[in-house]
Amino acid sequence: MALSPFDSAAAGGGVSSTAKILIAGGFGVGKTTLVGSISEIRPLRTEEPLSDRGVGIDDTRGVNAKSTTTVAMDFGRISFPSNLVLYLFGTPGQERFWFMWDDLAIGAVGAVVMADTRRVGDCFASIDYFERNGTPFIIAVNCFDGAPRFDPHDIRIALTLGPQVPIVMCDARERESVKNVLVSLVRYVMNTRSMQRS
Amino acid sequence: MNSRGGDAERWLDTEAGPVVRPYAVTKGRTQPSGGAWFGLIDIVVQTGERTPEDFRPGPEHRRILSLCGHPIPVVDLTSEIDLPLGVVRVLLGDLTGAGMVRVIQAQEETEPDQRLLRMVLDGLESL
């Protein structure tokens, strides 16, 4: 049984089961915004000012007016009445934090790879990682103001994705949109798993 | 805020980091003893057992104990206590070794099963 052998009533209505979803993608693509749109807590994170120590480390070409970057564990939380708590973990956006990815990926429901149409190549690294790791993922194209709009078909070709990987358009600032992204991921994972079994 | 002296950047007060290096509280240990492992979303809870005679909890052990009177996921515990995850894992290893805390694995399999997926889906759709 996958759920914890644990009586939530005895725990005073505490957490009885947990699940996690990873939010990945290139630097500045809106991972923290997406988590913040749906989390019941402000995303917890450590940030360093980019204008200062980050200079020379983070490549921000093509990213406008983003003054901070996430450099440590970044997560949000959604509690459901069933005493299930869903955690959303933003994967560290910089290569020097990749050592944390395995810890984040183990036991995850799946991953949302956020793509920015201005810098589509930024999510290659995340896609590579999840493909190699066997973590199911979907692509969420964050539709920034002023970003060029592409057909999902063109994005699929640009990212060399198989036909089975869902591509959804989203606005990371909108709760309903983020909810739709997460629902799409969970449905995809459920379908993939049941197909693997049959 | 940064204080600047000439071109050199100086870190002052909290920016300079903790006075005690994080792994000093684990006496330099970076892995939990006894091969214990604590996943980010595993749940830990006090067992209510007394402190064994051969175990001397430090202040950080006591802080962890005080936070897991109710079941609490490791990631929440870590953010509450404001210590690095690796340090919290070592301290939790000490506490489970002493029988004072038990860990409830988020799942036994590496992949969530259909029942958990269904719970997540139902939860999200009802938001």
Shape of chain B: globular
Number of domains of chain A: 1
Largest sheet of chain B: 3 strands, antiparallel
CATH superfamily of chain A: P-loop containing nucleotide triphosphate hydrolases
Low-confidence runs of chain B (pLDDT<50, min 5 residues)?
1-6
Give the termini distance of chain A in whole angstroms.
20 Å
Low-confidence stretches of chain A at least 5 residues in length (pLDDT < 50)? 1-13, 46-61, 67-71
Strand order of the largest sheet of chain B: 4-3-5
> Which structural class best describes the helix and strand composition of chain A?
alpha/beta
Mean pLDDT of chain B comes to 85
Q: Please give the radius of gyration of chain B in angstroms.
A: 19 Å
Q: Helix-strand pattern of chain B, N to C?
A: EEEHEHHEH
Q: Quick one: CATH superfamily of chain B? A: Winged helix-like DNA-binding domain superfamily/Winged helix DNA-binding domain
SSE order of chain A: EHEEEEHEHEHEH
Strand-residue proportion of chain A: 15-25%
- CATH architecture assignment of chain B: Orthogonal Bundle
Number of strands of chain B: 5
Number of contiguous helices of chain B: 4
Q: Which assembly state applies to the chains in this document?
A: heterodimer
Major β-sheet strand ordering of chain A: 4-5-1-6-7-8
Number of helical segments of chain A? 5
Task: Provide an overview of this structure.
The complex is a heterodimer of chains A (198) and B (127). Chain A is globular. In chain A, the strands form 2 sheets. A 6-stranded mixed β-sheet of chain A has the order 4-5-1-6-7-8, sandwiched between helices. Chain A has one domain: P-loop containing nucleotide triphosphate hydrolases (Rossmann fold, 3-Layer(aba) Sandwich). Chain A has 198 residues and is of the alpha/beta class. In chain A, 27% of the residues lie in helices and 22% in strands. Chain A has helices at 31-38, 101-105, 124-133, 152-158, 175-197; strands at residues 17-25, 47-49, 68-70, 74-79, 84-90, 110-115, 137-142, 167-170. In chain A, α1 crosses α5 (175-197). By secondary structure, chain B is α+β, with helices and mostly antiparallel strands. Chain B has a single domain (29-125), classed as Arc Repressor Mutant, subunit A (Orthogonal Bundle). Chain B is built from 4 helices and 5 strands. Chain B has helices at 59-67, 74-81, 85-97, 114-125; strands spanning 3-5, 8-10, 43-46, 72-73, 101-104. In chain B, the strands form 2 sheets. Chain B has a 3-stranded antiparallel β-sheet. In chain B, α1 packs across α3. Chain B is globular and about 50 Å long. Chain B starts with a strand and ends with a helix. The chains are: A alpha/beta (198), B alpha+beta (127).
